[in-house]
Design a protein that fits this description.
By secondary structure, the chain is of the alpha+beta class. The chain contains 15 helices and 15 strands. The N and C termini lie far apart (49 Å).
């Protein structure tokens, strides 16, 4: 590692010119997306961009995010009980300043990318060194980082990292990432529907019938801007009813995203009698279709099975445009499995900067993370 160095940047304008060449494999590390974070990150988030060099050549890029959980209006309003009260108290006092190495806003291994083979010993040393430097930076500003989390690794990467600097950290698995590997033989949406067993074909037909009267179409940047307040209201309704939150998007997030990423970012609006009642978003990431945030009117969602129809529509888009897989992310695991997505376990590592609290991490962490009980569905005939 003698010749490997890193540099931490706090603004996009400082990034080396070869950044996007190195990040070409991952849209969530390219400057067009990082500019979205720069211009419209959640109000309680600050981003850091890490360049990794071999001598003077940029060979890797990574993302870190600092979150001040104190600035949050709600940690998730669904579970109003003593457990929530205790969790919120603990968060405010022992875990309100959190540093993520990776992207806390999305699911998947999107924290770093290299354009050459790197051994896991070097990767683990680099990630830990970057975290230490950012902790020092905040200390100089009189802010104490409580928790450091290295987020979302595939199991084989996690196993390798554990052999080195990550060995002493608490390893955790939260909800799995729901991934739909699309069958390459499906050329049309009809092929997909034909693959369902009777029960799930009936579910598709029922959902399709329910949504009659609602139209959907992709919105232009201008339309996103003129509907921004309504889009945010629909997003915010869904976000605040999630079981657990560490951030809320900024109100201009979706228009910023469209402006920076153009055709690679799609926001599809759902209209009932000309009124916007829901939306979903997608990011085209090479051969992978990434689902992003969505929102809906609760009443319409119940009556029209809007959420399920959104999942079907995103799948149709993936098949029509011959993507290899769709990343559906965490949450709503059962309904996502009913359309064909399957769970992939993601691993994270976490430590508390207070070594006494850190010793309690194996006891504390499972109490802070809401447990999800769900049943995987198998919608296709071969099951």
């Amino acid at each position: 590692m003698e010749t490997t160095t890193y540099k931490i940047y706090s603004t996009i304008s400082q990034l080396p010119s070869s950044w996007d060449t190195v990040a070409s494999e991952n849209a969530f590390l390219q400057t067009s997306y990082l500019k979205v974070l720069d211009k419209s990150a959640p109000t309680n988030m600050q981003c850091f961009y890490i360049g990794i060099f071999e001598n003077t050549e940029l060979i890797g890029v990574a993302l870190a995010q600092y979150l001040d959980v104190n600035k949050l209006e709600s940690f998730g309003e669904r579970d109003q009980c003593l457990k929530t009260y205790v969790r919120n108290f603990v968060f405010k006092n022992f875990a309100s300043h959190v540093l993520f190495l990776g992207n806390n806003m999305i699911t998947g291994q999107n924290g770093y990318v290299f354009n050459k083979n790197m051994d896991f010993k070097s990767i683990s040393e680099l990630l830990v060194a970057c975290a230490d430097e950012i902790i020092k930076y905040f200390k100089s500003k009189n802010t104490k980082i409580h928790i450091v989390s290295f987020k979302d690794f595939y199991q084989h990467c996690a196993d390798e990292l554990k052999k080195f600097d990550f060995a002493s950290m608490y390893e955790f698995n939260t909800q799995p990432n729901m991934i739909f590997d699309l069958n390459p033989n499906w050329k049309t949406n009809e092929d997909y529907i034909a693959a369902f067993s009777k029960k799930y074909r009936d579910q598709y037909k029922r959902a399709h019938k329910k949504i009659e009267g609602i139209t959907n179409r992709e919105l232009t940047w201008e339309e996103i801007v003129s509907n921004e307040e309504r889009i945010y209201e629909l997003y915010h309704h869904v976000a605040k009813n999630a079981p657990f939150n560490t951030f809320f998007l900024a109100e201009n997030h979706f228009s910023s995203f469209k402006k920076q990423c153009g055709d690679r970012f799609k926001l599809v609006g759902y209209f009932l009698e000309e009124k916007l009642v829901g939306f979903h978003t997608l990011l085209l990431n090479g051969t992978v279709l990434e689902t992003y945030f969505l929102g809906y009117d609760e009443q319409v969602q119940k009556e029209k099975m809007l959420y399920l129809n959104m999942l079907y529509n995103m799948t149709k888009f993936g098949i029509d445009n011959q993507f290899k897989k769709i990343i559906f992310g965490r949450t709503a695991l059962e309904i996502k499995s009913s359309i064909g997505a399957a769970p992939l376990l993601m691993t994270g590592f976490i430590y508390h900067t207070n070594k006494w609290v850190d010793k309690l991490m194996p006891k504390l962490f499972p109490r802070l993370e809401p447990t999800v009980v769900w049943q995987q569905r198998h919608p296709f005939k071969e099951h």
